[in-house]
Write a structure and sequence with these properties.
By secondary structure, the chain is of the alpha/beta class. It has ten helices and ten strands. Helix 1 runs parallel beside helix 3.
Length: 296
């Protein structure tokens, strides 16, 4: 059997689309549980099928071949887990959400001496930086503790570095302006906050670099929402978890909501993604306001 070490070369994709059936997904989930500390049993079949199909094509494997490779090489198994994690995020993505957060939610915490904020599933960190920019604009950043976690260490390292491709993220500057330099009651613009305070853009090098005053603030930790407790050992005033639980089934969503509920301070706030909501038994534990859920 071929042994995989280090980085793995990607082979040409298969000519034909390979269908994965539910039994194949279940076989993969069982293998992950047997050969590692990870557990993907609570992920939806639909989301796993899409990502597994891409991975199998990358390596030109069938599902049984890949499972055998995972069994024989823990480094390859870790690569597969990293490829399964979703890393789609942007600075000031959905600017209306951040505008609402800045105007209606964050001021609720302005009288607190310390504000604890957690970004579970933070990916490459753009939303961590987005929130810190809002806090700085409100003169609340200095008293805020910023915590961020993800299952993928590679993504956490990118977040710590705070360096992103510019051409891929040209909408950053436009979304920054929409969220930060908004108008009141359709009158002339009264704010002129410059993004240069928070990051630099080098078009020749195709790079956006976040300033050190932001990069040095967060505490990052590898964490698996499926099985880990609150690893930061503090309660939070705000939890920002956008477009993560959408990949979980109903049972796992409620398990994560239980973790969030127990980790929030009284009247603390949970922010979810545009297509996510708190349903089931925990819907009575929160008061909903748009995408924001306040702990009762």
């Amino acid at each position: 059997m071929v042994r995989f070490t280090g980085r793995f070369p990607l082979l040409p994709p298969r000519d034909k689309f390979m269908d994965l059936f539910e039994k194949d997904i279940r076989l993969f989930q069982e293998a992950i549980r047997n050969y590692s500390s990870y557990d993907f049993n609570g992920y939806t079949i639909k989301s796993l099928k899409r990502r597994l199909t891409r991975i199998l094509r990358d390596y030109s494997f069938g599902i049984e071949e890949m499972i055998k490779a995972m069994q024989s090489d823990s480094i390859f198994l870790e690569e597969v887990v990293k490829k399964l994690s979703v890393s789609t995020t942007e600075l000031f993505r959905d600017p209306e959400v951040w505008k609402h957060l800045r105007k209606e939610v964050l001021p609720r915490f302005s009288d607190k001496d310390v504000i604890n904020i957690w970004h579970p599933g933070c990916s490459t960190g753009q939303e961590v930086y987005t929130l810190m920019i809002l806090l700085d604009d409100l003169e609340m950043l200095e008293k805020a503790n910023i915590y961020a976690s993800d299952i993928n260490n590679d993504l956490l390292n990118i977040a710590k570095e705070g360096k992103y491709p510019f051409r891929f993220n040209k909408s950053y500057l436009e979304n920054f302006d929409k969220a930060m330099n908004f108008t009141y009651n359709n009158i002339k613009k009264v704010r002129n906050i410059s993004w240069t305070k928070y990051f630099s853009v080098d078009m020749a090098m195709d790079m956006i670099q976040m300033k050190d005053c932001l990069r040095d603030k967060p505490v990052y930790k590898k964490m698996d929402l499926v099985k880990d407790p609150n690893l930061f050992f503090v309660n939070f005033d705000l939890i920002v978890c956008r477009n993560v639980i959408i990949y979980f089934n109903y049972e796992l969503q409620n398990k994560v909501f239980d973790l969030f509920y127990k980790s929030l301070n009284r009247n603390g706030c949970l922010l979810l993604g545009l297509h996510e909501s708190v349903m089931g038994p925990f819907s009575n534990h929160f008061t909903k306001n748009s995408l924001f859920y306040f702990k009762n």
